[in-house]
Design brief:
By secondary structure, the protein is an alpha+beta fold. It has helices spanning 19-29, 44-54, 74-89, 94-102, 121-144, 160-166; strands at residues 2-3, 6-7, 66-71, 109-115, 148-152, 173-181. It has six helices and six strands. Residues 1-10 have low confidence and may be disordered. One of its GO terms (molecular function) is oxidoreductase activity.
Length: 207
């Protein structure tokens, strides 16, 4: 932590493991990457564990707003066909249509995640926030398990065909598609700027 201009390193007792350092290592290793082997399957039980841990995200009023759809095997091609049809209807170039047909085959597992609507606009927004937190938890869990992951949004988020394919309700908000797979390459490092952080009020810490 930082007190004034002095940096204090929080450490665990000698001979023990510092839990925060372990988590920091996982978080810093996380990358958004599609450098995965599309033919190397991810065990169902591992995917189920990741979804279970993602549902520990903070959730105001305990609405448990997350909806997960695990798309594997030929389901990925079927999803591509559904979204490609949106492009056909919009008179998009054939090259773009064909790219849409194959894009979900890039990883062995694609997870669609949506948030349920709340009783009012505030709760609906809070539900989406909770689902976003759940996705981040899933991504960190995937990193800890040695998987590469990628959180995708885009046109699919508002596609009626996509919503119907996943069996989401018309009132649900699609928050993302998460690609999961075993890495077959190392993504480049990310130069993350320090987050803006400002203490307001008197410090209770003693230098």
């Amino acid at each position: 932590m930082i007190v004034g201009s002095t940096v204090l390193i929080m450490t665990a007792p000698a001979g023990s493991v510092d839990p925060l350092s372990s988590f920091e290592a996982i978080a810093s290793q996380r990358r958004s990457s599609l450098r995965v082997d599309p033919d190397h399957s991810v065990p169902d039980e591992l995917v189920d564990r990741l979804i279970a841990v993602s549902a520990t995200a903070p959730n105001h009023r305990r609405t448990f707003p997350w909806r997960f759809r695990i798309i594997i095997g030929n389901g990925r091609a079927e999803l591509g066909d559904a979204l490609a049809q949106d492009l056909v209807d919009a008179n998009q170039p054939e090259a773009k249509v064909e790219k849409a047909r194959s894009k979900y085959l890039r990883a062995p597992v694609v997870i669609a995640v949506a948030a349920i609507a709340g009783e009012d606009a505030t709760m609906t927004a809070e539900n989406r926030d909770a689902v976003s937190a759940a996705i981040q938890t899933l991504l960190l869990g995937a990193t800890a398990a040695g998987l590469a992951s990628y959180w995708s949004t885009g046109a699919a988020m508002t596609s009626v065909r996509f919503r119907e394919f996943c069996g989401f309700d018309a009132t649900d908000t699609t928050v993302g598609l998460v690609y999961l797979g075993w890495p077959n390459g190392d993504p480049p490092p990310i130069d993350r700027p320090a987050p803006e952080s400002l203490r307001i009020g008197a410090s209770t810490q003693t230098p």
